[in-house]
C-alpha cells in the first residue's frame, strides 16, 4: 500500500472544466490516460453550476475570499449539484474513455471527516462565519481511496463532507484536494481550473514559487479572491509532505503532462517548499 501512496497524484478540477460536453469529454480522456501510468484521485468542484441552481431557486449567492458562505438552503443545492449532476456526468465520461471510475463524496466511508469550520478573517480584515462549511479533520485516514487506487480504480470525489455525527457540510474543493493529497502522501497535487497559474503584476504566469512567497501574496492582498483559496491549499499540502503543487489552466494544458512531467508546460505555476 505504501508504494501506491508514494506515486499517487491528486487532481482537483474546477467546475468550469466540467460544464460543456466537449470539456467533460476532454477531461475524461486525460483522466483515463493518466490513470494508466499513475494512481489517481480526482476531486471536483462545481461553482458556476451551483450559482446557476441557486439563482433558479431564488437563493442569494454569498462568497468571501473565494469561499462559499453556506446556509441550510444553499447546502441542499450544493449537495444536489455536486453529488448528483456533476459527479455522475464525469464518472460516465471517464468510464466511456476507458478507465474505471468510482463516484464518491467526502461523506462516503472514511474519505474525509470534517468539523464545522471556524469563522475566518478575510483579506479585508473582517471576521466571517462561513456557515455549514466543513474543515477536514487533520487525522483523517481515507482507507477507501487507498484501497480503490491500489485496485486500479479512479475515485472521483465531489466536495461534500460529513461530521462524525453525520451532518453534511460543504467543503471547498481546493481544501479537500489538499487534505486528501496530504492524507494519501501524494507526490503531487494538481489544481486545474479555467485560468492560468499565479500571475505577476504584469499579468504573466509565475512559473515557480515557494510556499513562503505564496503566503506573502496572500498577505499583500495582490492575489484575487479565487486564487487565495488555491494558495492556502498549496501551503497546506506542502506543509503536509506533498512534494509540489501545480496550478494550471485545464483548458490550455494537457492535464496528463501537468500531472506527471518534471518540465511543466507554459502557463503553469509550480509551488514548492
Describe the protein.
By secondary structure, the protein is of the alpha/beta class. The chain is built from nine helices and 16 strands. The strands form five sheets. The protein has an eight-stranded mixed sheet, with helices on both faces. Strands 3-4 form a two-stranded antiparallel ribbon. Helix 2 links the parallel strand 1 and strand 2. Helix 7 runs antiparallel to helix 8. The longest helix has 25 residues. The protein is globular, with a radius of gyration of 17 Å. The two termini are 26 Å apart. The N terminus is likely disordered.
Draw up the topology in text:
Layout: H1 2-6, E1 9-13, H2 21-35, E2 40-44, H3 47-57, E3 63-64, E4 67-68, H4 72-96, E5 101-105, E6 114-116, E7 120-121, E8 127-128, E9 134-136, H5 143-150, E10 154-158, E11 160-162, E12 168-170, H6 173-183, E13 188-193, E14 208-210, H7 211-220, H8 225-239, E15 244-249, H9 255-260, E16 269-272
Parallel strand pairs: 1-2, 1-13, 2-10, 5-10, 13-15, 14-16
Antiparallel strand pairs: 3-4, 6-9, 7-8, 11-12, 15-16
Helix pairs in contact: 2-4, 3-4, 6-8, 7-8
Overall morphology: globular
Order of helices and strands: HEHEHEEHEEEEEHEEEHEEHHEHE
Mean pLDDT: 92
Which radius of gyration do the C-alpha atoms yield?
Answer: 17 Å
What share of residues is helical?
25-40%
Q: Can I get a quick summary?
A:
The protein is an alpha/beta fold and 273 residues long. 39% of the residues lie in helices and 22% in strands.
List keywords for this structure.
273 residues, alpha/beta, eight-stranded mixed β-sheet, 9 helices, 16 strands, disordered N terminus
Amino acid at each position: 500500500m505504501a508504494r501506491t501512496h508514494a506515486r499517487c497524484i491528486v487532481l482537483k478540477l474546477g467546475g468550469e472544466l466540467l460544464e460543456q460536453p466537449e470539456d467533460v469529454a476532454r477531461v475524461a480522456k486525460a483522466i483515463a490516460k493518466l490513470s494508466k501510468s499513475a494512481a489517481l484521485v480526482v476531486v471536483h468542484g462545481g461553482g458556476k453550476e451551483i450559482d446557476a441552481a441557486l439563482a433558479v431557486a431564488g437563493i442569494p449567492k454569498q462568497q468571501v475570499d473565494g469561499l462559499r458562505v453556506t446556509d441550510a438552503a444553499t447546502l441542499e443545492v450544493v449537495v444536489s449539484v455536486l453529488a448528483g449532476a456533476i459527479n455522475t456526468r464525469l464518472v460516465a465520461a471517464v468510464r466511456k474513455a476507458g478507465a474505471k471510475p468510482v463516484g464518491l463524496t467526502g461523506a462516503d466511508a472514511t474519505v474525509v471527516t470534517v468539523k464545522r469550520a471556524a469563522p475566518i478573517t478575510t483579506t479585508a480584515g473582517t471576521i466571517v462565519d462561513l456557515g455549514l462549511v466543513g474543515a477536514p479533520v487533520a487525522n483523517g485516514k481515507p482507507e477507501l481511496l487507498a484501497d480503490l487506487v491500489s485496485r486500479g480504480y479512479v475515485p472521483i470525489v465531489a466536495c461534500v463532507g460529513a461530521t462524525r455525527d453525520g451532518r453534511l457540510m460543504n467543503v471547498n474543493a481546493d481544501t479537500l484536494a489538499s487534505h486528501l493529497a496530504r492524507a494519501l502522501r501524494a507526490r503531487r497535487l494538481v489544481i486545474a481550473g479555467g485560468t492560468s497559474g499565479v500571475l505577476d503584476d504584469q499579468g504573466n504566469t509565475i512559473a515557480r514559487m515557494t510556499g513562503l512567497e505564496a503566503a506573502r501574496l496572500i498577505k499583500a492582498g495582490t492575489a484575487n479572491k479565487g486564487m487565495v483559496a488555491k494558495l492556502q491549499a498549496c501551503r497546506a499540502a506542502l506543509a503536509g509532505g506533498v512534494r509540489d503543487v501545480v496550478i494550471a489552466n485545464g483548458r490550455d494544458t494537457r492535464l496528463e503532462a501537468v500531472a506527471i512531467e518534471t518540465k511543466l508546460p507554459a502557463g503553469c505555476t509550480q509551488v514548492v517548499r
